[in-house]
Design a protein that fits this description.
- The protein has one domain: Alpha-Beta Complex (Cyclic Phosphodiesterase, Chain: A).
- Helix content is about 25%, strand content about 30%.
- The strands form four sheets. It has a three-stranded antiparallel β-sheet with strand order 4-5-6, with helices on one face.
- Helix 2 runs antiparallel to helix 3.
- The two termini are about 15 Å apart.
Amino acid sequence: MAVDLDEPMRDVIDDAIARLKAAGLDERFTSREKWHATLAFLGPVEAARRGAVSEAIAAAAKSCDRFDLTLDVVGAFPDARRPKVVWVGSSSPQMGFAGCAEAVRAQLSGMGFDFEFDAVPHVTVCRLKRSGPLPDVGRLNPRTIHVDSLTLYESAPQGSSTRYAVLGEMPLR
């Protein structure tokens, strides 16, 4: 379950990747068409449960107000000193995103899904194979999008990569 991005937001992420490459980060970056901000990662969902999962997410979406999402910084999980996953995200709390993620996760938790970490608004740009600190690329040119729906994606292995397919869009109230 994720927030889809518009093309100007994707341009901000392209700029971040260009800065990371210029700073010496030589990794395989996630392709532009795969970028999204995840509210809840479900893992494999059996075909028989997909309808109920979609209904639960739609119900949660209807309880969420539309919100703005700003991305303006490059960061990493678990942190910039020991990065494993590099992302573009927000330097400040995003209350609308957090509230909507909480609503979605509450609905799905009732169906047996577990969420280990809080939802942090971010777009994954690469998973690192090397060690060492994340290069500082400075603040990005902030971009804000208005979010009026959530997108349910299915991810499936495709060779050495992953393919994402849109299963549905759920409008916010």
